Amino acid sequence: MITELLNRLIGEWSTETQKAGLNLKGPLFALKASEARVKDRKINFFVFDHNSHEPVVLMKLARTSSYEQRLRDEYRALNKVVTLKTLSHTTPFPIGLFDYCNHVVLIEQCLPGDPLSVLLRRHKRNGRDQMHQDISRAMNWLLTFQEGTRAETVLFEGSAVVEAALNLLKMRHNGKQLADDFTQNLFQLAVEFTGLAIPRTASHGDFWPGNVLMNDSKIGVIDWDYFEPDQFPFNDAFLFITSYARTYPWQSWRWASRKEAFAHAFLEKNWFSQLMKETITDYLQELGIPEKSISLFYALFLMEMASTDQGLDRDQQQSKRWMEFLDLYAGNWKTSIFYTK
Question: What's the whole-model pTM score?
């Protein structure tokens, strides 16, 4: 299969690669790379030219109908975001969508750099100054992306939003009830911020350190199959800091448990949690959102992640993991870094 795909790259598909400014010449070499959890649904091939030391093309081959649709979605998303001049060279250029033996194949140019999640695990970006720079660069990229896709401003609908989120949580988790004092506080905040003007923007949908590439002083963002053109802006930022805390190697080369990592980052006072708070406070300040509202919107984010199928390819097990975070947050909300009296 790999040989046939490579032959098509320099054969019948070469017109599209040339339009993208690539002049591929054989012999080509491909490195197969797919996560274990999706290898039965999708295969990635990193393609090297005959004289290249870095991959120049990424081929994604879908093995299920659901992943075929995701590749089609990503192709449409990339065609939109590459038109944003402010994001030039930070998103993959879509070369084309092709059919191979009844499989959908998405071909895109590779961006230089390594995933931030990998660099963290290798202890390459774990110094405090470096972490601050990396997170700031990711948030600045996100703000630039959101500014370039900004749509209308809507008014927050208050208690109705909290009520709907709680009802969905109950439906998805067998009547799940959160602590009374926590939900009462959410309703109080919702009333206080009823009518708050919130910009609608596009959403990457899976903005975590594994999809953020670092290359010296440059940044790249990959995997756009969960792109949404019109969303509230908070979820990308909240997903990034929550998954960053989970990715950070707390115990030498190993991850801490999910609960330990979440508590250390959001429920305890330390240098890392202070960095997370400053990151979100600065980000929301750029959007004109008051700091006191963070605890409300972060809780709504956790409820959405635990309850809905939007934004991520999460299964029941993943939903339960987000439910663990929500339970921790709801049970310790007064010690949260986002809590303000």
Answer: 0.93
